[in-house]
Write a structure and sequence with these properties.
This protein is of the alpha+beta class and 140 residues long. It contains four helices and seven strands; from the N terminus they run αααβββββαββ.
Amino acid sequence: MMKYIKMIKRGDVIVVLLLMLGSFLPLGIFSYVQATADHSNMQVVVQANGEIVHVFDLVDDGKTETFHFEDDHGHSNTIVRTGMTVDMTEANCSDQVCVRMSDVALVGDTILCLPHKLLVEVRSDNPDDNINEIDVLSLR
């Protein structure tokens, strides 16, 4: 065991520490975008097969708004906005992962129903707040 410890050089330790610190970079970027986002003009966009089918405005009015989606193949989902949160309450897909996902309320949060190709995403009216603009390639 001691012979393996003697094989470790100072440069190896520095590289490992830099890689560990770099692994927290996406978390820092996401947290920064969330903290600086203008949460006053948020919308929830519901997309089916990449096409927008419904838009909710996220306003703290205490009201409940329901959208029932059904496509030509008999796939159905029920999406409910209650104040500043949106949740998928019903789906007739076999795995029910989308129903078990937690509600969404922050810019960049998503609910995805893969069998029905349905995406529920929180966006901001301000294009600078949308996290979709940040990806791995733009960091380089």
